[in-house]
Amino acid sequence: MKNQKELIKLGEKLANHPIYPSAIKVRNHTALNPLLKKGGVHDKDNPKTRHKKERAKIRLHLKHKGYDNNF
């Protein structure tokens, strides 16, 4: 384990040498892909989720239109 003097020297050394942009990792571009977010391609492939969303849409449609005029 480093002692306090070595840590102070390391801190001064890091303060004198700024971090260059090349040293920073590039952001993960696949994480920003809108198709991989909620409601994207993977969500459509799940039959249980698709069925749940379809039922919710039908209930909302019937709620707005009324049960008498459902067709």
Key attributes of the depicted protein:
mainly alpha, 52% helix, 0% strand
Describe the structure in your own words.
- With 71 residues, this protein is mostly helical.
- It has one domain (4-65).
- The chain is 52% helix and 0% strand.
- The protein has three helices and no strands.
- It has helices at residues 4-16, 41-45, 47-65.
Short characterization:
This protein is 52% helix and 0% strand. The protein is built from three helices and no strands.
What is the CA-CA span between the terminal residues? 76 Å
Q: Compute the gyration radius: what is it?
A: 28 Å
Low-confidence stretches: none
Count of helix runs: 3
Sheet of most strands = none
Helix content: 40-55%
Order of helices and strands: HHH
Apparent shape: rod-shaped
Query: What is the domain total for the residues?
Result: 1
Total beta strand runs: 0
Strand content: under 5%
Average pLDDT number: 72
Helix/strand class:
mainly alpha
Blueprint of the fold:
Elements: H1 4-16, H2 41-45, H3 47-65
